Amino acid sequence: MKKLITTLKNIWKIKELKDRILFTLAMLMVFRFGCFIVLPGVVPSVLEDAASNGNPNDLLGLINVFTGGAFNSAAIFALGIMPYITASIIIQLLGFAVPYFQRLQQREGESGRKKINQITRLLTVAITLVQGSGYLTYINSLGAVDPNIPTGIFWICNIIILSTGTIFAMWLGERITDKGIGNGVSLLITIGIIASLPSAFIFEFTSQLNNNILLFVIEMALLFVVVMATVLIVQGVRKIPIQFAKRMVGRGANAMPATGNRDYIPLKVNAAGVMPIIFAQALMFLPVTVAQLFTDAAAENSFLMALNDFTSGPYNVIYFILVVVFTYVYTALLVNPQQYAEYLKRQNAFIPGIKPGKNTAEFIDAVTTRITLPGSIFLGIISILPAFAAAFGVNIAFAMFFGGTSLLILVAVVLDTLQQIESHLLMRKYDGLVKSGRLQGRSRMQGIGAGM
Questions:
Q1: pTM, whole model, 2 decimals?
Q2: Is residue 2 domain-resident?
Q3: Which of 370-379, 388-397, 422-431 has the lowest mean pLDDT?
């Protein structure tokens, strides 16, 4: 406890870090405030009744978790940041298939990234218009629209408000990333997830207290094991040893070879972080969005109904496959073996037993592929654990924290934020957040490939 208090004091002493944390908290408060502002013309009591009588297993309930309750309350942030995530997925996939986007991502540097960001924002607006139309159709089907308001005015006004809300949430995320601490988009999703955790925990505790408190203790133990396993896979690295070439010390006859310095390249087992989970989840939302536009057809299609239930077999099989695939896709975007090889060559370093240049790039690529396989499978297993927890009687709201997107996002975002805070502390010669087992990412080779 004493070390924690000392660390908090050190954080407060660093003006830049203190300002970044306060700015982040302020932006998150603005986002949470917007989650309680209801769209004009919507009757909140009707939505509350529909939410209480709805199926807690469907994806609409999951969307509500990610938006911090804004979806069920028809708030201005009802769509949250998910349209921006969907647009990012589409642009990332186009980077593999379309030469124009490949050139922007890989060759044009900062100007290319700015152009990609601009295209992503425009695509976000288009996706928000489509999803907003589906959402308003869903609200209208529930009878939650005030009949005194003309239909045309209701649609036009609220489409504009929903689009503005999503763009504003995207802007908040970008501002947090630039001027705050942590990844802004991930933090917005995280704050929505955390908002539902206290009520889910209290409900599970009270229900098990009346039945069998031992089961609740077992649940907590299993949750602790799952969280620790998730932390291990998120922090796990494969260290590739490298050696810097010997240099001569002294002149003439007195010249002697200096011993080559040894270091390593830390290749993360889960280099893609939380993004594959977010990407896969965003794609799973698409059938629901389409189903909202064609309610009758969706009700007759058993497969679409199964995709609307995140505890169903078809949903979890497809979700598992998407997580594995996106882990490989995003890792390929982040880890550039050729860039590693060029960096080592410029630094006059090499991997023992591997020739510099092409052979080094191929070796790093092979190692990355091998370690990504168990990492992607683990992510897939964690993603579908809530379905198993629910099958054993855990409350749906609390079961989502036994794995799945909620746990993975929470762990990854918290670790990433703590790593950034620790970096600020260490730069100013303060102790880090932990005395031993420091957060990964402080090797001299960690900066290779950053920003890709």
A1: 0.73
A2: no
A3: 422-431
